[in-house]
Amino acid sequence: MQNGVFENRREAGRRLAEQIAACRFENPVVYALPRGGAPIGAEIAARLGAPLDLLMVRKIGAPGHEDLAVGAIVNGERPDIVRNADILAASGMGRAQFDAACARALVEIARRRTLYLEGAPPVPARGATAILVDDGVATGASMRAALEAVRRRGPKQVIVATTVAARDTVKDLERLADRVFCLLTPDTFEAVGRYYQDFRQLSDEDVVRVMRAARAPDAAPGVSA
């Protein structure tokens, strides 16, 4: 890392992996938020000798204000629905409308999971040290939904691992997670990509290669991002 900027996702992932490995967590399972979290999660999983899975979060937007999240749906053995009760009530969104939005989100999650994981089954969190990974956290909304969903699945503990996040966001996550690893918490947070020398947008094919490599014995993560 030079001048507070990561070379790329893999380099950042290796740095995170070293910190996490030093803690010797029992029964670790790595859950990456795609797309950007996949190569970082792959580095961590490889260092820990842990299974790697994807945790896909789809926001449920308020009618006419799609950027305002009334809830989210998170994939897993059984998908979890996270509701923002106050925002949902204020939005006027009815139960049937919310359920229909969740059903649409589930279709997209199923499509992406089939594409990215090529039929690999979900990795269970029960009894494990669940490590949630992303390539940076801005508002923290997706990570908070992921945390709440995974917590319901009976892990021994839930860990958040990210390369860069705003200080206030890290404090919020520390109240929800058992531990937060974050390499960089700048005084003035800018867009996540600002902190990487190479922050190219990953394609679906990139994620497929990463996950395919992670399932192969003795294989290194398969993308240079």
Mind explaining what this structure looks like?
- By secondary structure, this protein is an alpha/beta fold.
- Helices cover 39% and strands 21% of the residues.
- The chain has helices at 9-21, 37-48, 85-91, 95-117, 141-151, 167-176, 204-215, and strands spanning 28-32, 52-54, 57-62, 65-74, 80-83, 129-134, 157-164, 179-184.
- The longest helix is centred in the middle third of the chain and has 23 residues, at 95-117.
Task: Summarize this structure as a short list of keywords or feature phrases.
225 residues; alpha/beta; three-stranded antiparallel β-sheet; 7 helices; 39% helix; globular
Number of helices: 7
Q: Give the overall pLDDT as a whole number.
A: 89
- How far apart, in Å, are the first and last alpha carbons? 15 Å
Q: What structural class is derived from the secondary structure elements?
A: alpha/beta
Quaternary state reads single chain
The largest sheet, given as strand count, sense and whether it forms a barrel, is:
5 strands, parallel
